[in-house]
Write a structure and sequence with these properties.
The chain is of the alpha+beta class and 312 residues long. The chain has one domain. Helices cover 52% and strands 20% of the residues. It contains seven helices and eleven strands. Strands 2, 3, 4, 5, 6, 7 and 10 form a seven-stranded mixed beta sheet that branches. Strands 1-11 form a two-stranded antiparallel ribbon. Strands 8-9 form a two-stranded antiparallel ribbon. Helix 1 crosses helix 6. The chain starts with a strand and ends with a helix. 24% of the residues are buried.
Length: 312
């Protein structure tokens, strides 16, 4: 069984992205499209922890020409972010916001995550759609201005990857599967699938890189240092980040409930106003009937009086 380095670590992940063939395979497989060109747009970014001066999140951008099926060629920015712990993403959020403002091309984000979100899928997509507010119908929009203001996001949850080696996507995900570790540090693992001369060339090239990292003493030392640091970050910030996320979720739920109650209150107020209007109308009708009845009573009384006089 082949021994490879774990690509969830920066040391390994960077080497994969530096290989043009492997990088195109990763992007094209996740986006399910052809990647015609893929050039580093700007330097790679590594979020540095202010206290320890060590990296906590890796990000690399590419300017790309892609060709989605039935859509034609497009120039886009591919933003690849890899984070092993939840807090990494939160601590990099403000920094990324500034970069979004600078981009003149549509942005597509790919997140390689070493932790689980609430979505029960190893790989999924979040793509903003355009809807007609008048008819509530989905619109087929191909407008450069709109595309620049919204962006698609693709997520790979490495902890949810299951052993499978059939489709191109499954073969790519198999590299990131977080199982079969050698030892407790999780920096290297046994690769359970066999490849032959007919295998996808990009997979064989990626496996070659991962094998090299696993065997190189200097790179292994870098992996060990990175693993030690990440464990320290998780120990120091992990619980706090989870508490913050839980608090955020509770606040969002509370705001949603508050909005729901406000809508219900407005609806009740509207129904109350409608009932009050109907009550006023009924009161008016009853008053009118009382007036008519009183008038009829007077007329009957007058007729009785006249009849009484006629009988005399």
């Amino acid at each position: 069984m082949m021994i490879i380095a774990n690509p969830i670590y920066d040391t390994t992940f960077k080497l994969l992205l530096q290989n043009d063939k492997v990088a195109k395979f990763l992007v094209g497989t996740i986006l399910n499209c052809k990647v015609l060109t893929l050039e580093p747009a700007i330097q790679e970014y590594v979020k540095i922890d202010e206290k320890t001066q060590k990296p906590s999140l890796f990000r690399k951008d590419f300017a790309a020409t892609i060709e989605p099926e039935k859509e034609g060629k497009r120039r886009v920015i591919i933003e690849i972010q890899k984070a092993k712990v939840l807090g990494d993403v939160f601590r990099f959020k403000d920094y990324l916001g500034d970069e979004y403002k600078k981009s003149k091309l549509p942005i597509i984000s790919i997140y390689i995550l070493g932790f689980n979100l609430s979505v029960n899928s190893p790989a999924f997509m979040s793509r903003p759609d355009c809807w007609d507010l008048m008819s509530n119908e989905k619109l087929d929009v191909n407008d450069a201005f709109v595309a620049q203001l919204t962006h698609s996001a693709y997520f790979v949850q490495t902890l949810r990857i299951k052993p499978s080696f059939n489709t191109r996507l499954e073969k790519l995900l198999s590299l990131f599967e977080q199982r079969n570790f050698i030892g407790d540090d999780e920096t290297t693992k046994r690769y359970p699938f066999k490849t032959d001369e007919n295998e996808i060339s990009e997979i064989k090239e990626a496996l070659g890189i991962l094998q090299y990292v696993a065997a190189d003493e200097k790179l292994r030392q870098e992996l060990d240092l990175e693993n030690t640091y990440l464990k320290s970050v998780e120990y120091i910030f992990g619980e706090k980040d989870r508490e913050l996320e839980e608090t955020k979720t509770k606040l969002e739920d509370a705001n949603e409930e508050k909005t729901k109650l406000a809508k219900e209150k407005a609806k009740l107020a509207e129904e109350k106003a409608k009932l009050a209007e109907e009550k006023a109308k009924l009161t008016e009708e009853n008053t009118k009937k009382d007036t008519e009845n009183a008038k009829q009573a007077e007329e009957i009384a007058e007729l009785k009086r006249i009849l009484s006089e006629l009988k005399k």
